[in-house]
Design goal:
422 residues; alpha/beta; TIM Barrel; eight-stranded parallel beta sheet; 14 helices; 13 strands
Length: 422
């Protein structure tokens, strides 16, 4: 029987095992997770979400504290127009996070970074360009452009010396979106190396509207493949969202796809950045616990667990220390929702139900974004005597994708009890 390991992904002159581990933020796709995928011969993604915050947490830098002090005077002001990121500090933070991972790279796989256009950060083009430049200077193997159409993104790095040798891809949800990006890429004579087609069953932010359930990845992917073939484009098509078993992946490979991007099953690995208690929440979730809502301050719909602590919280807007979703006009949907929410009789802010402060809550791992198949995670591992679920390794999940047949999922070996070890 054909398994995923029978295929290979070719990007230019490089060849990989056909598994991409998606870029989950904030630091959920840790360097450890991305590097393990790379070591095993696939592609692992870092996330560039909130790299100054991530640098502070991992390397004891002080980018967030410095920015907070700089704008301390504005904390009680509804108008956030003056809040900007220092571009040199942003560059340094991104460079530090990415360089630290690149220096540890082993194996024949690729170390990529997921870069979101919707992180507007008060100055969309300036901050996006600086994040991209830092990742390129740090030696990243590939850049995946996400959360937006990225009409002008390639122009921001067209003069960089690595513009033509770094792998570049874009996440899309329709053939129309790819056509728009290709039109701009043709003008710079720099086509993408790959296009990740993310369907409506993916975790986190979705590239669909309220009618997301009317779409099907298995209908979108053939449309993209047909377009790529008709235009004779050397662009690998990589489906994502709902690819839960190796057999799911093989079905797409036999259509002509180059690889699959997967994430949900890696959220419960020891290399993933989610806290252990949150991983247990993912294992324990039922299908009814997974919801799609409009709580994100980005304006995108978002799939998450309905018991996420961020929902109904009333944290004061964290624009001064954070502010990653501020528009170029200094506005944010959460800031608006917070100030539109009344106080109780004691003057305390009531729960903010319309939006969540994703800057703060993503950083605290309070937004439990998840794929539609998260409720199936309990079937991929062993339940231990204490009722908890056995945490997996990224290597186990990676190899199960490669070798799975008939939609079967291989369970990990049970840990040896301490008494038996003695």
């Amino acid at each position: 029987m054909t398994v995923l390991n029978d295929f290979r992904l070719r990007l230019g002159s490089d060849e990989y095992l056909p598994i991409m581990v998606g870029g989950m933020g904030v630091d959920i796709s840790t360097a450890e997770l991305a590097l393990e995928a790379c070591r095993l011969g696939g592609i692992g993604h870092l996330s560039d979400a909130m790299t100054p915050f991530v640098s502070d947490r991992k390397f004891k830098t002080h980018f967030t504290k410095t920015k907070s002090g700089r704008y301390k005077f504005n904390r009680d002001n509804i108008d956030k127009t003056q809040i900007k990121f220092n571009l040199d500090e942003l560059y340094s933070a991104t460079l530090k996070v990415v360089s630290a991972a690149v220096e540890r790279k082993e194996g024949d796989g690729g170390l990529f970074i997921n870069v979101m256009e919707k992180l507007t950060m008060g100055a969309a083009a300036d901050t996006l360009g600086m994040r991209l430049k830092a990742a390129l200077d740090a030696g990243i193997d590939g850049i995946t452009l996400s959360a937006g159409l990225h009409n002008g993104t390639l122009k921001l790095i067209k003069d960089h010396p690595r513009f033509r040798d770094v792998k570049i891809g874009i996440i899309i949800s329709s053939v129309r979106a790819l056509k728009i990006f290709i039109r701009g890429a043709v003008k710079l004579d720099r086509l993408p190396d790959y296009a990740i087609v993310e369907g409506p069953l993916a975790g986190g932010h979705l590239g669909f509207g309220e009618d997301w359930a009317d779409y099907d990845l298995k209908k979108i992917v053939p449309e993209v493949l047909e377009y790529v073939r008709n235009e004779k484009l050397d662009v690998a098509v990589i489906p994502a969202g709902g690819v839960f078993t190796g057999t799911d992946a093989v079905e797409y490979m036999e259509m002509g796809c180059g690889a699959v991007q997967v994430a949900t099953r890696f959220t419960v690995t020891k290399e993933c950045g989610l806290p252990p208690a949150v991983k247990q929440q993912y294992f324990a979730a039922g299908e009814e616990d997974i919801v799609v809502n409009s709580l994100s301050a980005t304006g995108y719909l978002m799939r998450m667990l309905k018991n996420s602590p961020a929902i109904g919280a009333n944290v004061k807007p964290q624009c001064e220390p954070l502010g990653y979703t501020l528009s170029t006009k200094g506005t944010c949907l959460y800031v608006d929702a917070y100030h539109a929410t009344d106080n109780d009789e004691n003057g305390k802010k009531l729960s903010v139900m319309d939006k969540v402060c994703i800057c703060y809550h993503f950083g605290q791992h309070n937004v439990w974004t998840c794929g539609s198949n998260t409720y199936r995670l309990k079937d991929t591992t062993n339940q231990l005597p204490d009722g908890s679920y056995q945490i997996l390794t990224a290597e186990h999940v990676f190899n199960d994708y490669l070798l799975s047949e008939n939609h079967e999922v291989k369970l990990p070996e049970l840990p040896v009890p301490e008494a038996a070890q003695a």
